[in-house]
Amino acid sequence: MSNPVSHVLPAGTDAVVGQIRDAIVSRQRFLITSHARPDGDSIGSQLAMAFALDALGKQSRIINADRAPDHYYEFPGLGRIEIAAEVPADAIADAVIVMECGDLTRTGVRGFEERYIINIDHHAGNRMYGAINWFDESAAACSEMVYDVIGALGVPMSLEIATHIYLAILTDTGSFHHSNITPRTFDICRQTVEAGVNPAIMARRVYDSNSFGKLKLIGALLDQMELVHDGRVAVLRLDDDVLASCGCTNNDTEGIINLPLTAREIQAVVFFRTTAEGEVRVSMRSKYDVDVRMVANEHGGGGHKNAAGFTVTGPLHELQPLIVERLVRAVDEGLESRPPE
Ligand code: AMP
Ligand code: MN
Q1: Least C-beta-crowded within 10 Å: which of 94, 103, 204, 307?
Q2: Which ligand is closest in space to the CA of residue 306?
């Protein structure tokens, strides 16, 4: 059974959602993209949009810089995602729908620049690079915004669409841990469950599909975890050698960063992933009002208050003390603004 999407748009968004609806209705061929190294929200937002365009009889191609982690391939439509560093020459389209990207370089795909772009994003600091720009920092996942667009288009909530909207919310809220969850988040989830989504199956597929190698990797990483600031800040480091010694690939690192936060005292985690090319990818997570996005912003990255990241080139032994010290400050500032428990 599929119910029509029925909801009230967040205040002030009617006009832009109407513009996006009109832009989609009046066009036929679409490209859909999102950020490099996709996560659940980028996958779910793109596929929910693609299935909605199918329902309208529109053509769409999804073009991403990187393949999604393997366990996402159990969800409908993943095989539709084309992996490319450049927009394929035959990708003729009337519009590109870019989701989850503060600027176009985040896609990691060249060739979208001169096209008609519909920019839908919930990351603070969006550069408004589209012909239409909808940026809503209050959305817990970009898929909450996609849900609005789909509703405005009058597309029914099919099981495929519902699955991807729920997948995106489940993962982007850190399985309902982050502080940007609102009644609206649950209202949308309620509708996805009514459309047939099974939250238990979703959670098992996303969180309980580790390889044995990943369990080994978790052990190795937690074993060498450093704690600073009376255990309030945790530091994890990973290089290619440790990854290989556990029989793992990059796909297996997803979600590990959240584990230290399960310790009561730990308020912030930083995960340094060094690569053979001399790059350091920095991921950060935090609890409550500890703002790691500010830290990422200072290094050219971005994200959200409780989940942010950036990538730099340079030696880890120089970067690490800087970031750890900055996180200690973020923790202290966050603790000051936290209401008493
Ligand atoms: P990650 O730690 O890679 O899972 O990213 C956490 C959050 O930070 C996500 O919302 C990402 O989109 C965002 N993020 C990570 N790296 C960057 C970056 N280089 N620029 C902007 N946002 C980023
Ligand atoms: Mn997101």
Answers
A1: 204
A2: 1
